[in-house]
From TrEMBL:
Biased segments, Low complexity type: 63-72
Alphabetized Gene3D superfamilies for the sequence: Histidine kinase-like ATPase, C-terminal domain
Transmembrane portions of the chain: 188-207, 219-239, 275-296, 372-394, 424-443
Biased composition, class Acidic residues, residue ranges: 29-62
Protein name per the record: Uncharacterized protein
Keyword tags: Membrane, Transmembrane, Transmembrane helix
Regions annotated as coiled coil: none
Region described as Disordered: spans on this chain: 1-85
Source taxon at top rank: Eukaryota
């Protein structure tokens, strides 16, 4: 049971050991250590079926900087790039050797280990070979083709000079060659059998019936002896191999399967090599040929020239086998290095094999050659074609002798050498046997013509049969022995794997001893105690502190824990963070034994020791060792609590003063119920480096953002504020004069106007900057609205320049009202004009040309400026300059005007292109010799109000129901219903108090059910505030949620008679999606005019209730509808809210602020709701966008705005509203 457990542990340990990172790569071959990573992928690809667990390692574990166990899951630094299954077997050999040495029952252990190794090896037919082994193949091939046969890599084109891609391909080239040979010989063997059968049938068909007879006498006896000896030899040679490969590996019951046999027979899983399969086919044809000769009549003819018997069945056998045996001989040969990979000279191999079959088939032709000249020609042809194998033999012999074999080297070097040697030997055997067959042929067929009759043996009619049977038996036996030897030397997948595993045994010792990661194998005994073998890397500092002699000779630490030492910590559920949890009284319960290299082969982690080799108790003599033992004990305690098959956790230790903290990453794999394997990695340095890098990134990002904000503040905001301060200083000086003259009053008025314009410009710049950032981050969603292009393109005074520099040409003139995103268009146009001013000719004219093609729906904008400094260089760059202009962070002008100090990040044109992309358009700039032309094209639509608005009217039975918590909005909604055509008796506007808001849903339901033939038009504000003066009762109800409840409660017939719209000032994409999912539509709080109310209502109504005659179903999908005529009318006639009502709402907010000034934080939420209602009202009267800056100011107020900031912003808002009211 001990050996079985050791073997199971070792086979499963690979999933952990394969993740070890070698600490001292210098102990390995430098080139191999550098090239292992290149070979890991090939290993994984060749073992997909057996590495599924490896591929899934770490799943479900939070990604952290310590995830390097997954990152190094291919055991970097392993000398031979061996894949996980080879490592699995290496650990089997490593630990299993100890089991044999100490556990007794060595014979049974060896048998189990061999079976386990074969099982793992067979599952990994294509074991990966690293770059070193590929270089061996290349060096061998190079030596065969070199003049002196030197193995020097420098002369042979060492592997270090090859590219990585070539090494990766070559890593599996030897295995690929074996696989190709197997497939080729398996397929050709089928053709050989078919060819043999066809020749046998042909021989019976072509000979006269009188030439078909049974053998008798000495001929029959010779064939019978041939059959018996050949059959016996085949059975003796092949049956043990077939038994081992096909029948022996019936897997034993495993403890995990409750005694059931979980394996299957290896038939169909382990493939017979192509060489062995070819040998079986050869012997099968030979045996069946002799069976036919013994048991059945066979065609026998007389050679008309020599007068000897010709056994056609024998030549039917030799013809296909001559070529096939030669092909197998060629395939055994070592591959050649060519073009970065191992290749075979297949053409030459097939040519030699084909010539051998042609030479042999002449034996079937001789009985039919009645003419001497024809017979001589056929014989000559047979000799010429036969000579090919002799020429080929001496060619290979010459090349083979060039390579001097020292007897050492890697497994793959030995394998390649054996393949070349066996191929040469088989060639020699083939040449010798076929030469002897030729000699035998002439002796037995021509001897009776030369020697006297006293030579009775040559004159015996059975001489030909005896000679043929003798040579056939000798050739088949010799060939069979060599084929089996070649199979075992180079093509038996089990032996190939075991040879590599034998090589891996030494490699595993290097990994175990030099790995910076700690490997631990722990087994729990029946008594509850645990034995653990730990690699020395974990205790290295303690061993140094303990002044152990020859520390480099220590290969393992074996720990013996009592059951109490582990179970006492199994109740701890919180993460382990300090090794001080282990009390001093518990430490002596842990036994420790230091194992040196000379005793490592006899270590058995299941064996608790004896009197001759006892465990030592851990005491306080070595505090460092005590701390390490305590740490590994707690790690083992937590590992034994785990029930999963595989898991990873962190463990942290700290000194008593918390000054030094060490963090470990532990990966645990449960092999069986009483055995686990751990890999413990010290990741303290990695965590510290990760935290330092993260801190650096955060600080760098913060500094970059601060720098950008500072540049923006200095460049854009500072200039405007300095100008405002200067204006305030002028006003202060004029106010300090004793007598205010008329000129002073006019100057003050001019200064105040300029101050107002400057502050508005600063605000516009800030808002444009925020929009640009959204565009850069890809977060901006276009908001389509109606744009008066004449107004936007005509406002050039905002650039602080003389309007005489600018010219505007529109086609058509005036431009129609366009539907597009106003903010994006202003960003594009503003940046283009600023760039023309900055980089164009100083004081030069700037021309703007706008054109709209109604047929194609394309809007085109051109901005033309005169060339500035460096323009000639841009012209010389051609199209490249145009591409660079719109690149991120690119400036083509390195210097600016001497009298201006400005900063440019080079992102202006890039932002322009992003804005154009959002609009579905494109931008281009052309540097012509005498000017610079900026071109912007985008698809846009003309706003067209519905032509059927004048004819539209609501049904007389319609009810208009609205709810809003704002007094001004309620008055607005009453006027809205009036202009929409809802009868006064059917207008219901609610929201005056909390009762109306809370009972709105039930009120609408009752009204709808009581009027089964009426239509209902609902307009519901999204944010309904319930506030009766008591702060505790303050509550916000969602209007869209109310609509959803109403629609859900109504039956389909009732709901079909309702149009319910949500009305809100919030119009983000998320908000719009929510509104449309609950209601029939969304109506934005925009300037409402009496002449456009009916158009707005008609669009929603016809979409909800399409006309039966298929008439117009509403206007364009634009919520903010204005017309060219409306843009010049007086606001008193257009809006449904009077300016006085706005002033009353402002006074209400002023009063609320004064009353609750001392308790601002407590009442701020209510004040914020009032501000939001004011925002909605301002949007309603925002014709000609006079209130746009004010609305933008309100949007800067949030629930967390400080009192001082709120007062500053509110005074500005109040001033704008009062100024508007006084003007109207």
């Amino acid at each position: 049971m001990t050996d079985d457990r050791i073997t199971t542990i070792s086979n499963e340990t690979v999933q952990i050991v394969a993740e070890i990172e070698v600490k001292d790569p210098s102990s390995l071959n430098d080139e191999d250590a550098a090239e292992d990573d290149d070979n890991d992928d090939d290993s994984d690809n060749n073992n997909d079926d057996d590495n599924n667990n490896d591929e899934g390692e770490g799943e479900g574990v939070e990604e952290s900087p310590s995830s390097s166990i997954e990152e190094n899951s291919t055991m970097k630094g392993t000398p031979n790039g061996i894949d996980a299954n080879e490592i699995r077997e290496g650990v089997t050999a490593l630990v299993g050797g100890g089991g044999r040495g100490a556990g007794g029952g060595g014979g049974e252990s060896v048998s189990v280990l061999q079976r386990r190794r074969q099982d793992s090896a067979i599952k990994n037919v294509k074991l990966s070979i690293d770059a070193k082994n590929f270089r061996v193949a290349r060096r061998f091939s190079t030596a065969l083709n070199s003049k002196d046969g030197s193995l020097d890599e420098g002369e042979g084109g060492g592997g270090a000079t090859k590219r990585t891609g070539e090494r990766m391909h070559a890593a599996t080239a030897l295995n690929e060659d074996v696989a190709i040979v197997d497939r080729l010989l398996n397929r050709v063997s089928q053709y050989v059998v078919v060819c043999w059968a066809i020749l046998v049938i042909f021989s019976y068909w072509i000979v006269p019936p009188g030439s078909i007879r049974r053998y008798s006498g000495m001929e029959w006896n010779a064939a019978l002896v041939n059959l018996l000896l050949l059959t016996t030899t085949v059975l003796v040679k092949y049956m043990p191999l077939l038994w081992d490969i096909k029948l022996k590996d019936m897997s034993a019951p495993s403890p995990a399967s409750d005694g059931r046999r979980t394996g299957t027979m290896m038939v169909g899983r382990t493939q017979i090599s192509g060489i062995l399969y070819g040998g079986l086919v050869t012997q099968f044809i030979a045996v069946m040929t002799v069976v036919i000769m013994v048991a059945f009549p066979v065609p026998v003819m007389i050679d008309p020239i020599l007068g000897s018997k010709v056994n056609l069945i024998r030549w039917c056998e030799w013809t296909p086998l001559a070529g096939y045996m030669t092909l197998m001989t060629e395939c055994i040969d070592a591959p050649e290095y060519s073009g970065g990979k191992l290749t075979q000279a297949w053409r030459k191999k097939f040519e030699v094999s084909g010539l051998m079959s042609l030479s042999t088939i002449c034996g079937l032709v001789f009985p039919f050659c009645t003419n001497l000249y024809v017979w001589v020609v056929v014989m000559t042809f047979s000799f010429v074609t036969y000579s090919a194998i002799i020429v080929r033999y001496f060619e290979k012999r010459k090349l083979f002798r060039l390579w001097v074999w020292s007897g050492g080297g890697s497994v793959d070097e030995i394998e390649l050498y054996e393949r070349a040697r066996m191929s040469l030997t088989l060639h020699g055997v083939c040449c010798s046997i076929w030469t002897l067959i030729t000699v035998q042929y002439f002796v037995t067929s021509c001897g009776h013509l030369i020697v006297p009759k006293t030579w009775t043996m040559l004159h015996d009619p059975a001489a030909m049969m005896i000679g043929e049977c003798t040579m056939d038996l000798i050739s088949k036996c010799l060939y069979m022995s060599l084929i089996v030897e070649a199979h075992q030397a180079a093509f038996d997948e089990v032996r190939r794997a075991n040879r590599r595993l034998s090589e891996l045994r030494n490699a595993m010792n290097v990994v175990w001893e030099n790995s910076s990661d700690c490997i631990a194998i722990s087994v729990q005994k029946v008594s509850g105690s645990t034995s653990s073998m730990v690699s020395p890397s974990f205790f290295r500092s303690a061993l140094v502190a303990g002044k152990e002699e020859m520390i480099q000779n220590i290969t393992a630490i074996v720990l013996e824990h009592s059951s109490l030492a582990v179970q006492s910590h199994q109740s701890i559920n919180e993460p382990f963070t300090n090794s001080s949890r282990m009390k001093e009284s518990e430490v002596p319960n842990v036994g420790i034994k230091i194992v040196r290299k000379d005793a490592f082969a006899g270590v058995d982690i299941h064996y608790s020791g004896n009197d001759d080799d006892p465990f030592e108790c851990v005491g306080s003599e070595n505090e460092v060792m005590t701390c390490h033992v305590a740490s590994i004990t707690e790690i083992l305690a937590q590992a034994w609590q785990i029930k999963e098959d595989e898991i990873m956790f962190d463990y942290e230790t700290a000194a008593e003063d918390e000054s030094i903290r060490t963090k470990f990453e532990v990966k645990v794999t449960r092999l069986e119920e009483n055995a686990i394997v751990m890999v413990v990695r010290n990741v303290s340095e990695k965590y510290r480096r990760f935290e330092a890098e993260k801190k650096f990134v955060f600080e760098s990002t913060a500094r970059l953002k601060d720098a950008q904000a500072n540049r923006f503040t200095r460049h854009e905001v500072k200039n405007g504020l300095l100008a405002a301060i200067e204006i305030c200083g002028n006003v202060r000086e004029q106010l300090s004069e004793p007598v205010m003259s008329h000129e002073s009053l006019l100057s003050n008025l001019e200064n105040m106007t300029e101050l107002d314009r400057t502050l508005h410009d600063i605000l516009d710049i800030i808002l444009a900057e925020t929009m640009a950032r959204d565009v850069i981050q890809g977060m901006y969603v276009p908001r389509m609205e109606c744009i008066d292009m004449n107004d936007i393109l005509g406002k050039t005074n905002g650039f602080g320049l003389n309007n005489s520099r600018f010219s505007l040409v529109c086609s058509p003139s005036p431009m129609p009202i366009i539907v597009s995103d106003k903010g994006l268009f202003k960003c594009i146009y503003g940046n283009v004009i600023r760039n023309a001013i900055k980089y164009g000719k100083l004081g030069g004219k700037i021309a703007t040309e706008a054109k709209y093609d109604e047929a194609t729906g394309e809007f085109e904008l051109k901005v033309i400026n005169l060339p500035g400094r460096g323009h000639d260089k841009l012209v010389m760059m051609g199209k490249r300059a145009s591409e660079l202009v719109f690149s991120h962070g690119t400036r083509l002008h390195n210097d600016t005007h001497a009298n201006k100090q400005s900063y440019s990040a080079g992102d202006g044109a890039w932002i322009i292109r992003n804005c154009a992309n959002i609009l579905g358009g494109k931008v281009e700039i052309m540097f012509e010799p005498d000017r610079t032309v900026f071109l912007f094209n985008a698809p846009m639509k003309i706003h067209r109000p519905s032509f059927d608005v004048d004819k539209f009217h609501l049904p007389p039975s319609v009810w208009g129901i609205a709810i809003d918590d704002s007094k001004i909005q309620r008055k607005l909604l009453e006027r809205f219903f009036h202009h929409a055509g809802v009868p006064a008796t059917h207008q219901i506007v609610l929201g005056q108090n909390s009762d109306e808001i809370s009972g709105f849903v039930n009120f609408v339901l009752d009204l709808v059910k009581s009027h089964p033939r009426s239509f209902f038009f609902l307009i519901v504000d999204e944010n309904l505030e319930m506030d009766d003066g008591d702060a505790s009762s303050h509550k916000i109800i969602s209007g869209s949620e109310c609509i959803k409840q109403i629609r859900t409660a109504l039956d389909p017939e009732q709901e079909m008679r309702m149009l319910a719209l949500v009305r809100s000032a919030n119009d983000s994409p998320q908000d719009l999606a929510l509104y449309r999912s609950r209601a029939h539509g969304y109506m934005q709080k925009v300037p409402l005019r009496g002449i456009s109310v009916r158009e707005t209502v008609s669009r929603f109504w016809t979409e909800r209730f399409p006309p039966k005659d298929g008439g117009n179903q509403g206007g364009d999908n634009v919520e903010n509808s204005i017309t060219r005529k409306a843009s010049v009318e007086n606001i008193r006639d257009l809006t449904l809210i009077s300016p006085v009502e706005l002033l009353l709402e402002v006074e209400d907010i002023d009063s609320f602020c004064v009353q609750n000034f001392d308790n601002y934080p407590h009442y701020h939420s209510e004040l914020w709701e009032k501000i939001i209602r004011l925002k909605g009202d301002l949007k309603t009267v925002n014709v000609d966008e006079k209130f746009t800056p004010t609305i933008n100011l309100i949007e800067t107020i949030g629930r967390e705005t400080e009192l001082s900031d709120f007062i500053t912003i509110w005074l500005r808002i109040r001033s704008d509203i009062v100024s508007f009211v006084s003007q109207n």
